[in-house]
Design a protein that fits this description.
single chain; globular; Rossmann fold; alpha/beta; five-stranded mixed β-barrel
Length: 273
């Protein structure tokens, strides 16, 4: 188990010296929300390349910026881009946005991502609220991250995602007349898209969408006592669900098509939190 306070001491000291206020809500912007911060009142932006010890995102659409912003009198920290296992990073690096948010006193975390649709009632462009998360493929990494827990510690994860925050999201979608789907998000490490056989296996055990982020962030934030929810933009059919060949360009094209709806939902959530 790595001592993250020691590993990221310089990083946190740097950010605390640069932070203009204490954020109330942290949002990790996945594909589909890459430009969302520009719609808010930005007080300060920091390139992650200027932060000591911060890993570099190599994925198209993940710009590598941290924004301190405000919307409807709510103070926010936004992470424009994340790093992933498939880029060669380990779990201690992939949860940096969560670690930073906690160190800056944030109590609520909204995770967003692009995901492949497994549920055949979903279509590309749908938004899905995660009702549960499956991280069975990274149990060892999660143990390395948070250590072994006693029974009390294990109970911290019963309300993941947070039911109160999820209810706020559902009501926000209703108010904005957005058709918000609900379902189980299943995590895989990558680096390739899943095979049709893997998707059939995931579907058999309850998966509605699949992606390569979010679960470790959610588990770690819950462990730290933060209220956490996750929304996926269904950018493509998962492998084998349709005959169309998977590509990252399809992901980015669909995310771009629905970004205004996604942004409208997130703004409503910010107002309601």
């Amino acid at each position: 188990m790595v001592d993250l306070n020691f590993k990221y001491k310089s990083l946190i000291e740097f950010l605390k010296s640069e932070t203009p206020f204490k954020p109330e809500l942290s949002i990790i912007l996945g594909s589909g929300l890459g430009d969302f911060a520009e719609q808010l009142q930005i007080h300060k932006s920091i390139s992650t390349s200027d932060i000591p010890g911060y890993p570099v995102s190599t994925v198209v659409g993940h710009k590598g910026k941290i924004h301190f912003a405000e919307y409807e009198n709510k103070k926010l920290i936004l992470f424009q881009g994340r790093v992933h296992f498939y880029e060669g990073y380990n779990i201690n690096e992939c949860i940096i946005p969560v670690f930073i948010s906690h160190k800056l006193g944030v109590k609520n975390l909204l995770l967003t991502n692009a995901a492949g649709g497994i549920n055949k009632n979903f279509t590309p462009g749908d938004l899905m609220l995660a009702t549960s998360l499956n991280g069975i493929l990274i149990k060892k990494e999660l143990t390395d991250l948070i250590g072994l827990t006693n029974q009390t510690g294990k109970n911290n994860f019963i309300n993941l995602p947070d039911p109160d925050l999820n209810l706020i999201i559902i009501k926000s979608a209703d108010a904005e007349k957005i058709n918000l789907k609900e379902g189980v998000y299943w995590f895989t490490k990558g680096p390739t898209y899943e095979t049709p056989a893997e998707i059939k296996f995931f579907a058999k055990y309850g998966a509605d969408a699949v992606g390569m982020s979010t679960v470790h962030e959610a588990v770690y934030s819950s462990y730290l006592g933060m209220k956490t929810s996750a929304i996926s933009c269904i950018t493509n059919f998962a492998s084998g669900i349709s005959d169309q060949k998977l590509s990252h360009s399809e992901v980015t094209e669909t995310a771009d098509r629905v970004k205004n709806t996604f942004a409208r939902l997130v703004k409503a959530i910010i107002k309601a939190v």
